Amino acid sequence: MIVRSLLLGMSESAWLREHATRWPFVRRAVSRFMPGEMLADMLAAARVLRDAGIEAVFTKLGENVASAAEAEAVARHYVEAVATVRAAGLGAEPSVKLTQLGLDIDRDRAWRHLQTVAEAAHAAGLYLWIDMEQSRYVDVTLDLAERARAEFRDVGVCLQAYLYRTEQDLDRMLRAGVGVRLVKGAYQEPASLAFPKKADVDRSFEALGGRMLEQRAARVVFGTHDAALIARLCDRARALGAPPRSYEFHFLYGIQRAEQARLVAAGEGVRVLVAYGDYWFPWYMRRLAERPANVWFVLRSLVGG
Ligand code: FDA
């Protein structure tokens, strides 16, 4: 718990972001979770995944963009990226962060950029995902997800099982026909808003996941690497008569590869989220916080040279 808080605290340090990303041992360690910094690296990874029966979801790393020009460039990047994905014959789906599209500058700007990306994804026949960030962004993220869903059919949003409010939010998204990617939640949140204990988060995930299966959400996605939880959700799906592929499991690149392969062999729908770009520090620190054993991996790559 202390290590998690420390790592999540470090994830918000501008100094570390500036400096640590230049240290070769950190760059070596991060490559485990990221095929590379360029769009071409993501495409290459998506091709390899497809050969293993897995489509990708892709995201260009970045968050809390403070410059209008940068937010616009991010939107332009996604427009080009979805066209490139389609031209490459891949089905990789974009996943965007609203604060990377300018939400901290103003909401209308983020909406306009989201609309631009949604239009491009729609034209390419690709589903659009919206990530969920810190709790202060949940209301606006759900509002914009609903608004996007009203214009473009194939839109989904990430919901976090650690927040007490998610039960209500899930019902709202189900009613609006917005697809849902359920995750445990990656940020540091106060006990007034989120379950502090992991066991409670896991229980919440299972209950919310069961509801998604029962209600046949527009898109039922479980974003987790937790094999025991995955097994329980598969049992629940079978009990409800939900066939494999009417729900999916999404993983982060490089994590639980054996479980990914096992699910594919069992006929389950699997996607892997591939992240790329040079703004990887806060994202990478959240990956370390999820599993403190990963810190030893970083230290080993320091010693190993
Ligand atoms: P948990 O942390 O309990 O891990 C279960 C097991 O998986 C561990 O025992 C370990 O074996 C393995 N594992 C988990 N994380 C690992 C890691 N980093 N390295 C190595 N092994 C690891 N969050 C958010 O707040 N907003 C979002 O938009 C998203 N989007 C998203 C998309 C997708 C596709 C996934 C898979 C996850 C996210 N997340 C997210 C992150 C999510 O909230 C959560 O922090 C991580 O998925 C870790 O939780 P698990 O469900 O994997 O369980």
Shape: globular
Oligomeric description of these chains: single chain
Mean pLDDT across residues: 93
Tally of DSSP helical segments: 13
The helix content, as a percent range, equals: 40-55%
Strand ordering within the main sheet: 1-2-3-4-5-6-7-8
Q: Can you tell me the residue ranges where pLDDT is under 50 for at least 5 consecutive residues?
A: none
- Mind telling me the C-alpha Rg? 18 Å
Largest sheet: 8 strands, parallel, barrel
The N- to C-terminal Cα distance equals 29 Å
Q: Element order, helices and strands?
A: HHHHEHEHEHEHEHEHEHEHH
Q: Beta-strand level of the residues, as a percent range?
A: 5-15%
Overview features:
eight-stranded parallel barrel, 305 residues, binds dihydroflavine-adenine dinucleotide, globular, alpha/beta, 8 strands
